[in-house]
Amino acid sequence: MSSSSGQRAAVDVLTAKVHQRFGDAALAVAFYGSALRDDQPVDDGLFDLLVVVDGYRHAYGTWPLATLNLLLPPNVFYLEAELDGVRIRAKYAVVSLPQLRRHVAPRCLQTYFWGRLAQPVELVHARDNDARDAIESVLRQASVTLAGATAPRLPGTFDTAMLWSRGLALSYSTEFRPERKERAGMITASGHTQYERAARDAAQALGWRIEESAEGTRFVTSYGRARRAASCFAWLARRVQGRVLHVLRLVKATWTFDGGIDYLVWKIERHSGVKVEVSARARRHPLLLGWWTLWRLRRKGGFR
Predict the structure, then answer these.
(1) Are 95 and 26 in contact (CB under 8 A)?
(2) How high is the mean pLDDT of the chain?
(3) Which residues have C-beta within 8 Å of that of residue 295, sequence separation ≥ 6?
């Protein structure tokens, strides 16, 4: 089985398990992240899935998880399945369609959703055509929002690679991320065709001028000094807010994500090469003792 066909089969199995949990409350399931970009073997790492539901009470049936999801979306869960005798793993984030729409809009300060969904995403399940249309509209808006927030931080003329590598780097800086500094440029280069198409769509939506030349497509903007200063301030605010929310989401994940501390340590090691051992006590009490593990990782340069 090739990597691509194995990946497709793995995502189908994982999506089926997600659908078993949420039933017709699941409007759509999207596949995104490093597993999609890198076409990695099915037994190497986790698949990232986004589950869009029509409402939290409908999805969970009880108020505690529904309330957590409403107050600080998304809720993130861990999932395992078997495919031809191989264990496959995923983490899936749950968000309602109304909240998702608000969180990809240009006025939304948080980058959590639009920073992720502006990258390549594959819609692997939709409840019906209306749900498919709604999610595709959300994905387009995520790209437009990231592009619009990034362009004032660039020169007046830039190309696709400059736009997305800068945009992803800015987005990463709003969280405690293990990716190296060059990661955003590598991601952009690996999916240039998709990013080129997204950049053109964003340019049309935002009123940028598109110029064609022998060197390729370039985009021209005319942001004034005040607009650029406001953009710098907005990204500073996103950085402060985003890192606070990132910590709060980690705290929340101790209730929703079984094995969360081991997953976090593994992910940081995979991206940065920095490794620490997790104590049995930290596994039993991640909310109280997991912070020491994170501090050790940060001191060793596992994340910024």
Answers:
(1) no
(2) 87
(3) none
